[in-house]
Write a structure and sequence with these properties.
The protein contains 4 helices and no strands. With 83 residues, the protein is mostly helical. The longest helix has 18 residues.
Length: 83
């Protein structure tokens, strides 16, 4: 085995570049994120962002319950579009 993997080559280079102080990114390991292992969306961050960015949702916060399933479907369907 050569010791090369996507994690040791591509992912490490991207994380290193994005975490430079001038870009302001912070790396968090997947295990530290508030999501399931197979989850893509971090809903504990997404919901406040939806409320902040969308006045119609902020006006009636229960609309988040209408929007989240649509966002999940879009994310899941994007995988089949790229295949």
């Amino acid at each position: 085995m050569s010791g090369f993997s996507e994690s040791s080559t591509v992912q490490a280079a991207i994380v290193e570049r994005l975490c430079k102080p001038d870009l302001g990114w912070v790396h968090a390991p997947g295990s530290a994120l508030d999501r399931t292992v197979d989850g893509v969306l971090i809903e504990s961050d997404l919901i406040p962002a939806l409320l902040h960015l969308n006045p119609a949702i902020a006006e009636k916060p229960e609309r988040v319950d209408e929007v989240l399933p649509i966002l999940r479907a879009v994310v899941l369907s994007s995988a089949s579009l790229s295949a």
